[in-house]
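Re: beginner question about structure tokens

> Can someone show what the tokenized structure looks like for a real chain? I only ever see the sequence side.

Sure, here's an example I had lying around. Input first:
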Amino acid sequence: MSAKTVNGLMFILAGITPPVVYLGLGPDGSGILDMARTEQLFAYLFFSLPIAFMMTRKVQTNNFLDAGLLILVASMSMSMVADALGASSEFTKMSDTVSVTAFSSIMLGSLICGIGIFRTELFPRWLSGLFIAAAGIAFLLLATAAPADIESYVPVFLLVHLVMIILGVHTIRRSA
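And the corresponding structure tokens:
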């Protein structure tokens, strides 16, 4: 399998992870996994996002991609703590409080990575721009949200993840 194919699959995996894990396998979906296993599986699979951007920067890099990747890695650590706390009903409020900062920081990192890919010739400008817009809106909504409001922004999250899937498909289909 070529590096380009793996890179595209990492974007696709990052894009499909939330709906498949939370809405498909988790307690809010089929109930195959309990909340703790759902959060674990999500965390492991969502590491595909920084891997996808890291592989992208190996093709063509700039400082925005590097800065966004750094923010992504740091905020994903915070997000894993929030998800682990959320797996226990005793710590739901604490999880929600940490989640607002963690999830908005992930969107900030994605936004900056989006600016980075916009400055390259790896993706069409419209696709990079769409990713910037989706991540930017998600960041603004989450950065100003109260902890209890996070779940009301699921459609915005899904839009960002849909664009990740499109980035992945484009990466796989891109000529060398």
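Each token stands for a local structural state, so reading them left to right follows the chain. The chain has a mean pLDDT of 92.
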